[in-house]
Amino acid sequence: MDTNFQEEFTQIIKFEPPLYKQRYQFVKDLVEKYKPKKVADLGCADCSLLWMLKFCSCIEVLAGLDICASVMKEKMHTLSPLPVDYLQPSERSLTVTLHHGSVAHKDPCMLGFDLVTCIELIEHLEESELKKFPEVVFGFMAPSIVVISTPNSEFNPLLSRVMLYRHPDHKFEWNQAQFQSWALDTARCYDYSVEFTGVGHPPTGMEKVGFCTQIGVFVRKYPQTGESVQSEKPTEAVYKTVFKAVYPSLKDEKYLQNAVISEVIFTAQIIKHRLMSKREEYGDDPERRSKLQPSMDCFSDYLGKLVVEKNMEPFVSGNEVYIPLATIFSVPKVNRLCGTFEKLCKLIAGKVTLSSDGSAVMFNIEHENEEN
Amino acid sequence: MTGRARARGRPPRQAPALAAVGDAPVQQGVPGQLRGRRHPQQPQQPQQLQQLHVPPPQSEEPGGHGRLRGFESVLQERRPEGLQVSSGLQDLSLRDRGGRRRDFHDIGVNTRQAMVHVQESKTGFSGRMIKLTTNHFRLTSRPQWALYQYHVGYSPEMEARRLRSALLFQHEEHIGKTHAFDGSILFLPKKLENKVTELFSRTRNGEDVKITVTLTNELPPTSPTCLQFYNIIFRRLLKMLNLQQIGHNYYNPSDPVSIPNHRLMVWLGFTSSILQYEENIMLCADVSHKVLRGETVLDTMHSLHSQVGEERFRDTCAKELIGLIVLTKYNNRTYRIDDIDWDNNPKGTFRKSDGSEMSFVEYYKKQYNIEISDWMQPVLISQMKRRRGNIQGSVALIPELCSLTGLTDKMRSDFNMMKDLAIHTRLPPEQRQRELGRLLNYIQKDDNVQKELRNWGLSFDYKSVSFTGRVVQGEKIFQSGTMFDYNPQFADWTKETRGVPLIRAVPMDSWLLIYTRRNYDVANTLLQSLFKVTPSMGIRMNKPNMIEVDDRTEAYLRVLQQRVTPDTNIVFCILSSSRKDKYDAIKKYLCTDCPIPSQCVLARTLSKPQTIMTVATKIALQMNCKMGGELWSVEIPLKQVMIVGIDCYHDTVSGRQSIAGFVASLNQTVTRWFSRCVVQSRGQELVDGIKACLQTALRNWSKWNKCLPSRIFVYRDGVGDGQLNTLVNYEVPQFLDCLKSIGTDYSPRLTVIVVKKRVGARFFAEIGGGLRNPPPGTVVDTVVTRPEWYDFFIVSQTVKNGCVAPTHYNVIYDTSQLKPDHVQRLTYKLCHMYYNWSGIIRVPAPCQYAHKLAFLVGQSIHREPNMMLSDRLYYL
Fold first, then answer.
1. Which family does it belong to (chain A) (predicted)?
2. Out of A115-119, B567-571, B681-685, which region has the weakest mean confidence (pLDDT)?
């Protein structure tokens, strides 16, 4: 290669979007494709990959591991639930945990994951750690998929300001052959298949150099034989948990109940309000009162298609307004939350005032609007 | 209620911040560009500074309150982006959310030093003693405590703040685990061995860097910088306790109170501020409630649509939503809705920093994996304020992804909703202190928090401060030759005044009663009741001109135009609904074009037989005041005194006007008031208008009294946090100027008192082993006041439930030579003089009158009312 040509290139090569983002995007695409429920990021550093992944709706368990606790703590609060997560709990459950520890040690908290990512991790490992690494990740954790990315040293001459390695903490940087041979050996040993790819395309005419970041995607060949495999491994916890956030979720009975009660009462209030304002408008004139029923139609725009059956009509009796639970249950949002009518009844029991037979939500209207 | 309008008028607390590292803000060009997308022919204007942004992805950049002046000047050296606090707190930054902020606690303003007569003492003496506790807690530091301030220099120069801290913290063995660093200034709890320390680090790229750490300051515990520092540390502690920051305060998300009837959720949280008080540095902590809505802005829009229909939909949305604060689904920021862009939708695009265009739909999908389901919704616009540099821009928000916080005015006027809320938010004294105790308990029990405090050498006294206050005696109420006391426990004399003639009853010889056909019966009932209640008040009332109108605004206006004569005393309108436009039109016409006092009442208010007599009594009194009558008085011992009240109203929805209401007493008994108001558009200074008001007020006073007042008291309400300095340096000199301009030999004694209703302090009386609200007339002028001010608190009103809030009075200018006790007494007397309430109110009557005036003008009239009305309380 002509030196001048090469020098010229060092000025030009700049990745857009930046390479780290491309690596994260690669992981995100993988998550979209395989829809793993449990994902662990080894060497999670400042948690930025984890932060991106928390928005992926398929993930229910997210774990990070790093040898340096302070770098994790620096931004770990970004992994906490937001106020809105409490206000509108999501359907899925999500738990995010950060562990302080080494990939050279086994800890049972890392078992049972679907996807383990090691983005720009292995080149930071000392030789002794690197030796233990495959046994820990592939042998012990044994997730369905492992993603490993590492710098491609063949690309280094194209980057400006790279002296020996891209980062002073790198213990080595492999060329394509070195990485692939290590990966193939590892895959063979632990019964995984591996495919190679990367991010950061080489300039045209220099494709031989390969991607700037080389990536190996390992897929376990045979499904896990079950719990027995894991229970055989007597390990004790060696990692220290530095952070744990459990996101509010409708899977949690407490949040589901709150959401249902809130939705039931709100719906009932709307129906009551409509009913009362119609009554006020038409007064006690029975002829005009009969117009009350068709009005349900325009109302159902808001509540979705309501099946208006005879026994589902809300009614007033004395100082009380009754809104049948069946009507409320037919509202799509309530329906979706509860699933079954029985569940609805169970969730609101004791929390919402019901008629004596428990079939309708009851409001007392005696004292309303008094001081308005 | 007064505070609300003002609060909403404030600039938004958070300016949307800088993008986090690695995520350049996606910038939209000028609004022109936004539109340019739809009209490509429009030329782009590169110089324009308006930018539209999508909110930055990373969550908050937390921090404490606004900087002190002194602190800021220190830090300005290199635009700091944040000060990091160490030992497990690296994520915490000393830079406040939203960047620079004015001096929130008005710390640097020392007004007392200029007032010689209160140098020695600013305390009063009258009244009986009362044992009080408060919500203040002493902050203690170990003996010889100091904060060490270092300057940190890099050679070669390093730009990135993160890199600077990373390089510095490679040397934790030297500087210790406890530190606060903003990129150039380092605070340590201990002194380094040498005055100058040189350290060597290496960057990722293998570059060697020399770091020079130089001691620049040893700060004593009471220095302003330290105070600032304590506040930041304390807020960090709240964060360590897993409380969520919303706006200014921290809230506990894990135990919300849900109010499903109104789809509301209430989070319990705390406000905190650490300040130098009279003798000690103390933490003032209070329970705070955050009302959140369990629905998105889009949900709200949908329900508005179903309520008002297509025609009024956009207007209603603007009225309901603009000015509200929203939270987003994807980051931990709050934004204020400043506008709604109906021409845009999620498919609309914006320009990213790299120049490429992207739609909102794409952006949120890519950035947060969020699918926007409704592609037809409009886009909310939030203005960014005080961005670094000169760039002013706005953020586009998608309604579906935003949750509302707080209450709208409409919700506040919903009696049932407020009642349901009050159950959870109005905590009685005992419970309030208990909740506060829980916070302190968390702090005390949490190991990490305690460790952090220990590392800095700080601790709190977990028992709240107790001291003695005074309860000044109740006032005697005078009404036409009779005099009576009121029950001090209730601070109300409704019963006592019944059947007693008014000081000055204005006859109703000629008046109009306007009603719709439906309300014919109501009108008659009212009339009969008025005839029953007015004689004992001494009001002579003729039969009104009864006029039936159609229930349309134009119909009302036509009647007014045709039937109001110069002899008309007052116009009474019975309205059938609380539709604001009708009310506004009537008020506008009768306050400007045709200056006649008017009384509007909702038919519903008059429709209950059991309350009609009470209602009629109140209405009769109110009408009498509007026509220039006087109800009662208290003894005002000062002679030739003019009392002025000023308050402001900020219109957030239309036109963004601000209105200053100005009232000034006209007579010795302080029973008649002159009023004017200043309508000013955005950016205009209020002061010039107020100067003119003062001039006319003096002219009127001299007309009434045949001389000029020898004493003037100004009660200035509507002063926001951090505006004290402006008031002292700008407004007070203008008052003095104005007085000078009256005549060379005229030099009255002037006292200017800043009135503040929204204060963090709460007082509890220790009665019978329990905590109660202190009785009206409780004055506090020690311990929790500020040493650099001539200030005091008065609890003047009573509350039925919850905790009574004291009002803070800060005398910023005083040549009266009066003893503090007399100023306190006068202030308390004036709280008795508000004619719309036969009881003691929270602020001096002139402030409340000024508020009423500003509110009426701001809400309904939008320009200065006719001067013909200026000697009457027509705005009640």
1. Belongs to the methyltransferase superfamily. HEN1 family.
2. B681-685
CATH number, domain at A103? 3.40.50.150
Q: In this structure, what token pair is assigned to residue B336?
A: 């204020």
**Is residue B617 located within the same domain as residue B669?**
no
Catalytic residues of B: 647, 685, 717, 851
Q: Is residue B90 part of a domain?
A: no
As a residue count, chain B comes to 876
How do strand A95-100 and strand A240-246 relate by DSSP bridges? antiparallel
Tell whether B570 and B606 lie within a shared domain.
Answer: yes
The residue of chain A with its CA nearest to that of B203 is A168
Pair A32, A161 in one domain: yes
Residue B714, in any domain of the structure: yes
Task: Inform me whether the C-beta atom of residue A83 falls under 8 Å from chain B C-beta atoms.
Answer: yes
> Under 8 Å CB-to-CB from B419, ≥6 apart: which residues?
none
Task: Give me the number of domains chain A comprises.
Answer: 2
Q: Which domain holds residue A318?
A: 253-281+306-364
The Cα of B332 is separated from the nearest Cα of chain A by a number of Å equal to: 6
- With contacts defined as CB-CB under 8 Å, which chain A residues touch B328? 82, 84
pLDDT at B41: 36
Which pLDDT score, from 0 to 100, does residue B20 have?
A: 28
Comparing CA positions, the residue from B487, B427, B496 lying closest to residue B776 is: B487
Percent of chain B with pLDDT over 90: 46
Nearest by CB to B369, from A55, A78, A269: name it. A55
Does residue B854 share a domain with residue B712? Answer: yes
Q: Is the pLDDT of residue B204 over 70?
A: no
Helix intervals (H) in B169-296: 172-175, 224-240
User: What's the whole-number mean pLDDT along residues B227-249?
Assistant: 84
User: Are B651 and B615 members of one domain?
Assistant: no
Query: What is this model's ipTM?
Result: 0.77
pLDDT of residue B30: 30
Same domain, residue pair A237 and A330: no
CB-hemisphere CA count at 13 Å for B260? 17
Number of domains in chain B: 3
A355 in contact with B, Cβ within 8 Å: no
Residues in chain B closer than 8 A to A258 (CB atoms): 258
In this structure, the answer to whether residues A165 and A182 fall within a common structural domain is: yes
**CB atoms near residue A299 (< 10 Å):** 16
Confirm if B571 and B510 have CB atoms less than 8 A apart. Answer: no
Whether A328 is in a domain gets the answer yes
What is the nearest CA distance from A60 to chain B, expressed in angstroms?
15
Q: Which positions of chain A have pLDDT values less than 50? A: 1-11, 227-228, 284-309, 369-372
A272 and A359 both lie in a single domain = yes
Q: How many CB atoms are closer than 10 A to CB B322?
A: 18
B537 and B627 in contact (C-beta within 8 Å)?
A: no
Q: Among B219, B251, B266, give the residue marking a domain's end.
A: B219
User: Phi, psi at residue A74, to the nearest 5°?
Assistant: -55, -40
Q: Does the structure show a pLDDT above 90 at B215?
A: yes
pLDDT in tens, A170-183: 889 999 999 999 99
Instruction: Tell me whether residue B38 is in a domain.
Output: no
My answer on whether A114 and A71 are in the same domain is yes
Task: Clarify whether residues B592 and B726 are in a common domain.
Answer: no
Contact B713, B644 (CB under 8 A): yes
Task: Pick the residue from chain A with its C-alpha nearest to B367.
Answer: A52
Classified as helix, coil or strand, A369 is coil
Residues B689 and B838 reside in one and the same domain: yes
Interface A-B, measured as beta-carbon pairs within 8 A, has a size of 98
* Domain assignment of residue B570, given as a range: 505-627
User: The domain spanning residue B168 has which CATH number?
Assistant: 3.30.70
- From the list B204, B327, B416, the residue facing A83 with the nearest CB is B327
| pLDDT computed for residue B333 by the predictor | 82
- Output the pLDDT for position A148: 97
What pLDDT does residue A234 have?
58
Kindly give the interhelix angle for B297-321 and A295-303, rounded to the nearest 10 degrees.
110
